[in-house]
Recover the amino acids of this structure.
């Protein structure tokens, strides 16, 4: 007989257990905020601001926009905290607010940027860039190379469509599961997997220079 | 010697994307972030709440009452729709710009207001009641209904008093079966949405009728409506006609009705009326609607 418990890897089980503990702790804080202890919301902000900022930044590739949208996300969450009924995890609810705010912002501002891959290929060999990143001694060069590589990755990410970029950001960078992404984005798990597969194909094609270095 | 970057394994896409995870702001950024957060929190306090948010909150508060309110609104809407429907004997308002009430020449079943069939010509089946345009003139107008019987019928038409507050008198004479054509001339100045005749039994007794509804002359307000009502039968007792109380147009219509009533058949009546329309356009310049149904010819002035 197929045992479902054995099919789940220990790492995934640990992650799931950790998420459950976080959700329980968040639920307690949320109930206290709903009861009037608004200071508890500061704890939630401090806990999730980096992750929320990271999601928004990887979708917008702009620090200032990510900062503004992160602040707006927490303000909206605070204004709507009484409507949160605990049917989903708090961080899922918070992610949904952040992703929706970012999607609205991107669609309004039409921030989809198109970059030319030729510009990337004309620059210095990527192999040397990766070597400098792997060298722990040369910290100054390493930071510069890391920044440059991150810029290249941002450019490749911006070539994706907004839904595909969202899925890649949530899965590959933020580490959410398919089910959590489906809950945040509001689509089926199959759609999440399909978008992820297509986005990876496109990223591999765009970053071929780096991958073959 | 093999370079290091060739010796190591090729990076994967996941490795590259993992690089992006290291892209995190420093502590100074978060200090600015907290400062901006405070400012936005204060701004959010004094910011007026959008109207749609108020609506959503209101809808949640009146959630238990939402169903009865919706049901009541739907019922009121249904009543309004039924009220203005032209079928089913309900009344139809005449536009306020209409200078005169409708005149209806009909044969067969009575065309009193609200007594039309739904399968008739929509124009002809429109109830001949006066709409809101007459509200200011209701007191000064008189509804007169006169029945024109066959010349061989000596009996005057029995008068039927309309029970409506407006002065309305209906005089009708049953037609002879071998010559079922009779005419009723009615001058109406009804109050809003009051049927001219409710006596559908008497109307059905006459298989073919020609009924003309015209507006009577305005009467002084001091005149009692019932006393000023003139009931007459063209073929029965012409002496009862008070032509002095009628304006020239109404007298003309009455004379036309007399001619029509003496016609030989319904077809000839229709032809005659239509012929008059063609030949004497100036006379009927005020006709706004002519309609023919199975046994009914309607004119609206």
């Amino acid at each position: 007989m197929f045992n479902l418990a054995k099919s789940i890897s220990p790492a995934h089980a640990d992650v799931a257990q950790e998420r459950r503990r976080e959700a329980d702790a968040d639920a307690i804080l949320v109930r206290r905020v709903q009861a009037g202890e608004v200071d508890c919301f500061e704890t939630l902000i401090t806990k999730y601001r980096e992750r929320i900022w990271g999601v928004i930044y990887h979708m917008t590739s702009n620090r200032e926009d990510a900062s503004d949208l992160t602040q707006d996300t927490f303000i909206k969450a605070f204004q709507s905290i009484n409507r949160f009924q605990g049917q989903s995890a708090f961080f899922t609810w918070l992610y949904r607010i952040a992703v929706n705010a970012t999607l609205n912002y991107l669609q309004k501002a039409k921030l989809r940027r198109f970059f030319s891959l030729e510009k990337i290929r004309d620059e210095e060999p990527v192999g040397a860039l990766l070597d400098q990143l792997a060298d722990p001694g040369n910290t100054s060069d390493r930071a510069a190379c890391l920044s440059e590589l991150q810029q290249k990755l941002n450019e490749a990410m911006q070539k994706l469509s907004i839904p595909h970029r969202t899925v890649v950001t949530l899965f590959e960078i933020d580490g959410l599961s398919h089910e959590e992404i489906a809950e945040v984005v509001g689509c089926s798990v199959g759609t999440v997997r399909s978008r992820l597969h297509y986005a990876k194909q496109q990223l591999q094609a765009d970053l071929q220079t780096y991958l073959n270095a | 010697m093999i370079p290091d970057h060739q010796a190591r394994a090729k990076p994967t896409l996941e490795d590259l994307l993992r690089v992006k995870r290291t892209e995190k702001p420093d502590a100074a950024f978060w200090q600015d972030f907290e400062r901006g957060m405070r400012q936005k929190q204060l701004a959010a306090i004094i910011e007026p709440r959008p109207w749609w948010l108020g609506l959503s909150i209101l809808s949640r508060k009146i959630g238990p009452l939402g169903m009865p309110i919706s049901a009541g609104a739907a019922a009121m809407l249904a009543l309004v729709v039924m009220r203005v429907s032209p079928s089913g004997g309900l009344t139809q308002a005449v536009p306020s710009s209409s200078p005169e009430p409708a005149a209806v020449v009909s044969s067969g079943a009575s065309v009193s207001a609200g007594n039309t069939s739904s399968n008739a010509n929509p124009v002809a089946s429109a109830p001949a009641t006066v709409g809101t345009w007459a509200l200011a003139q209701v007191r000064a107008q008189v509804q007169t209904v006169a029945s024109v019987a066959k010349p061989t019928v000596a009996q005057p038409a029995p008068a039927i008093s309309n029970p409506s507050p407006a002065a309305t008198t209906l005089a009708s004479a049953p037609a002879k079966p071998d010559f079922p054509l009779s005419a009723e001339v009615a001058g109406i100045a009804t109050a809003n949405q009051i049927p001219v005749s409710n006596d559908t039994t008497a109307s059905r007794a006459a298989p073919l009728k020609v009924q003309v509804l015209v507006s009577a002359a305005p009467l002084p307000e001091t005149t009692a409506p019932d006393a000023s009502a003139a009931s007459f039968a063209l073929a029965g007792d012409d002496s009862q006609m008070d032509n002095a109380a009628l304006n020239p147009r109404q007298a003309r219509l009455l004379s036309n009705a007399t001619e029509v009533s003496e016609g030989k058949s319904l077809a000839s009546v229709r032809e005659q009326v239509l012929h008059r329309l063609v030949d004497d356009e100036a006379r009927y310049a005020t006709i706004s609607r002519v309609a023919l149904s199975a046994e009914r010819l309607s004119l609206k002035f």
Notes: Chain A touches chain B at residues 45, 49-50, 53-54, 57-58, 63, 67-68, 70-72, 74-75, 78-79, 127-128, 130-131, 133-134, 146, 149-150, 153-154, 157, 168, 172-173, 200, 203-204, 207, 210-213 (CB under 8 Å). The domain at 115-213 of chain A is CATH 1.10.10.10 (Arc Repressor Mutant, subunit A). The mean pLDDT of chain A is 79. Chain A has two domains: 10-113, 115-213.
